[in-house]
Structure formats: C-alpha cells, structure tokens
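Here is an idea for our session: we take a single protein and study its fold together. To get us started, please write out a protein record for me. Once you have written the record down, we can walk along the chain together.
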Amino acid sequence: MIGILSAGIAPGLALLSYFYLKDQYETEPVFTVFKTFLFGALLVFPIAFIQHVLKTEYQFESSFFNAFLSAGMLEEFIKWFILFYAVYQHVDFDEPYDGIVYGASVSLGFASLENIFYLISYGLEHAVGRALLPVSSHALFGVIMGYYIGKGKFSSTAKWKWLGLSFAFPVILHGTYDFILITQENWLLLMFPFMIFLWWLGLRKVKKARELSARHIESQLFY
C-alpha cells in the first residue's frame, strides 16, 4: 500500500514542485498551495458521485457527452469554481503567475487522489503510464486555467473574457483528451501528438505568465 500511495502521489508533487519553483518573484506560501492541493483532492468524491449518477440514472451512450460534458465540463467547472471562489480573492494571489501555481495545485490534487484509487484498483504496473498521461494532462489543464485566471485578475480590461477562457479552454482540451481515449482504437497515435501540443501550450503559458508577472511587479514599483 505504501508503494501505491507513493507512486500515486509522487508525479503530482513533482509536477507541482516544478511549476511552483518557476515563480521567480514572491513564491506562494506552502500552506496555501497545500490547502489548494487538498481542495483539489477532495473534489474527487463529489465528481465521482455526479458521474456515477449520470452513468447509472441517465445512461448516456454518446462518446461526445462522456468526453466533453461528463468528464471535461464537469471536472473543469468544479476545479474552476474552487479557484475562483476560494483562491481568486485570496491575498496571496498577488501576481499573474500565481494563477499557474494555484491552477496546477488544484488540478494535481484531484489527479493525485484519482491516481491512487486507480492504482489500488488496477495495480502498480500502470503507475508510469498514469504519470505520463492523466496526471500530466490534468496538470497542464490546470496551468492553462490558471494562466487565464491570473490574466483576468490583473487585467484592467476584458476581465470576464479571460475568466471565461479560463473555463472554456480547459474544457475543450480535457474533452479532446477523453474523446481520443474513448473513440480511437489506436489512441496512442493521436494521443502522442496531442500531449506534445499540450506540453508546448502549457509551457508557453508559463513563460507568458512570468512575463506578465514581471510587468506587474515593475508597475507596482513605479506606482
């Protein structure tokens, strides 16, 4: 069990540490980041319950529904809700890059507990594949969500446009990820380029968020 717990949580913590250490200005309090990670982990239970109800009571057979609504929209909305209502107004969220940290944190909390349950059910031999695909993809969905939330919070114009994108863009990406898994027999042929694109996009958002933070810090110094 210790091996499963370690293998289940290690990829999430490693990815969170990577994005956390990319914060080149005021690093976020570890307690606040951990609390956000814990919130994300707790989301597994209500999401699993709602998905179970949708599957057993309504019995939707559509691959599009299962990928984009049951998985993509539901999971990303609840993560977005936590970010917006529990983190967005927090005093520690004081520069654009912080959105990346908290977005990755809530997503990786969710992905880590989900990963532990999966490994308990199906075995430790799936640990590497889970780390490379579901855990990494959740981290990147969170990074992209956090980038637009951070941009929205510190933008003087079009605030709600950025907040809308912070929800819509991860839903589309998450839905696409699940749709590939559900509908493609040789899904690795599409998943491999999709994950390359997702990493490219996520790291690009990290770079842009750091640039936004640099400009924000400079403007504060000369205010």
Remarks:
- Residues 8 and 118 are 9 Å apart (CA to CA).
